[in-house]
């Protein structure tokens, strides 16, 4: 595609689609233009000329003059159909749909191989942070030990407002929704599903291991209450929702859990809608990336970066898959956790290997101890709103 103007066909014109339109029109030097935008509701007012829009997907998918399909919709099955059809039609594709990608990674990888066309999705993982490309290009060996970080701008905004401005969870969530950082239905964010989809994607590029989202345990911040917040403050900690994948003893584990973070941790000072990612490798120790993790222009800029990369024939090489030494996935790992509950019949303390601290009052109880990740994944008692879990730093 080098040295030519590429024509874009875009699916979706919500927050990210409009962000892409804005950054594309403000950026000089990228030879790309929007030819057509496919939307669902033709009667909805749009901020740009209606001649751009169509409701017929085939106007993009079957147009031989459209070089790149940009998929930016919220419907998982429809997004996969768009992307797979475009790849089969020989079109390069850029996507920001983390759930669709995480749930279909093996199929999407195979489609790229079979049809010899690139599929880029930097915007799916940490918005403005170019983490996938770093994993692909800089960490293209097998010496990476861990990827962990704040991968959801919505929950980080909420937690920042709770700890820095003493807002209630409900007020902070409403602010995040008003600013466009959280959806009207915030379930995927506050329950930790959104960062889980992202860590599944990053796990593939970090270690070459395909993992289904349902194999990865996620527990969010929606059970958080004032007692937990005071527990953190008394220990000079804050709370961050952390997505983590780590290689240990020939296998790799992954999870999304709220953590108690001390001031020395680089993630402590990642505030508001920002994301922060720590990479740990055998030779370089830790490297830290930080950038905006929510918002239309932040995500739109990552989409535009992928479009620009296509001008220079860039594609993911998936070198770690080809190295044939991928670690197997496991949930057999021990975590030190704080578990808060109301009454003993709400939890199964027999699941703990050890308990180092206990507290009881008429209103609340908690324990600090070590438990297996697989036990947590299987624990039905974690669904109780009166029960909360935080991982403690070692």
Automatic annotation (TrEMBL):
Its EC number is 1.1.1.3. Residues 130-307 form the Homoserine dehydrogenase catalytic domain. Pathway: Amino-acid biosynthesis; L-threonine biosynthesis; L-threonine from L-aspartate: step 3/5; Amino-acid biosynthesis; L-methionine biosynthesis via de novo pathway; L-homoserine from L-aspartate: step 3/3. PROSITE patterns: HOMOSER_DHGENASE, PROKAR_LIPOPROTEIN. Signal peptide: none annotated. It catalyses: L-homoserine + NADP(+) = L-aspartate 4-semialdehyde + NADPH + H(+). GO terms for molecular function: homoserine dehydrogenase activity. SUPFAM superfamilies: Glyceraldehyde-3-phosphate dehydrogenase-like, C-terminal domain (SSF55347), NAD(P)-binding Rossmann-fold domains (SSF51735). The keyword NADP applies. Keywords: Amino-acid biosynthesis, Methionine biosynthesis, NADP, Oxidoreductase, Threonine biosynthesis. Belongs to the homoserine dehydrogenase family. This is Homoserine dehydrogenase.
């Amino acid at each position: 595609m080098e040295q030519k103007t590429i024509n874009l066909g875009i699916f979706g014109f919500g927050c990210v689609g409009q962000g892409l339109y804005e950054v594309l029109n403000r950026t000089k030097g990228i030879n790309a233009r929007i030819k057509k935008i496919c939307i669902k509701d033709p009667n909805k007012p749009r901020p740009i000329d209606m001649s751009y829009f169509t409701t017929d997907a085939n106007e993009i998918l079957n147009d031989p003059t459209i070089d790149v399909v940009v998929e930016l919709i919220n419907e998982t099955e429809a997004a996969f159909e768009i992307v797979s059809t475009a790849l089969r039609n020989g079109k390069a594709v850029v996507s920001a749909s983390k759930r669709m990608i995480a749930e279909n990674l093996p199929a999407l990888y195979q489609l790229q191989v079979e049809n010899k066309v690139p599929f880029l999705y930097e915007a799916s993982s940490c918005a403005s942070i170019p983490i996938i490309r770093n994993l692909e290009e800089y960490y293209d060996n097998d010496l990476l030990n861990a990827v962990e970080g704040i991968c959801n701008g919505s929950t980080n905004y909420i937690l920042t407002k709770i700890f820095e401005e003493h807002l209630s969870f409900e007020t902070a969530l409403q602010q995040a929704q008003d600013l466009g950082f959280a959806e009207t239905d915030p379930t995927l964010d506050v329950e930790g599903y959104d960062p889980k989809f992202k860590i599944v994607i990053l796990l593939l590029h970090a270690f070459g291991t395909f993992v289904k989202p349902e194999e990865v345990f996620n527990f969010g911040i929606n059970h958080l209450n004032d007692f937990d917040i005071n527990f953190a403050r008394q220990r000079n900690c804050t709370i961050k929702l952390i997505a983590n994948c780590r290689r240990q003893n020939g296998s790799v584990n992954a999870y999304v859990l709220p953590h108690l973070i001390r001031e020395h941790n680089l993630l402590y000072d990642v505030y508001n809608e920002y994301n922060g990612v720590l990479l740990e490798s055998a030779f370089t120790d830790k490297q830290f990336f930080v950038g905006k993790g929510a918002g239309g222009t932040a995500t739109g800029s990552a989409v535009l970066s992928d479009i620009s990369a296509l001008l220079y024939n860039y594609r993911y090489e998936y070198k770690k898959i080809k190295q044939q030494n991928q670690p197997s996935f496991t949930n057999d790992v021990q975590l030190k956790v704080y578990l808060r509950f109301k009454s003993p019949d709400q939890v199964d303390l027999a699941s703990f290997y050890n308990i180092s601290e206990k507290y009881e009052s008429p209103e609340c109880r908690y324990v600090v101890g070590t438990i297996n990740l697989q036990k947590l994944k299987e624990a039905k008692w974690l669904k109780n709103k009166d029960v909360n879990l935080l991982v403690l730093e070692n």
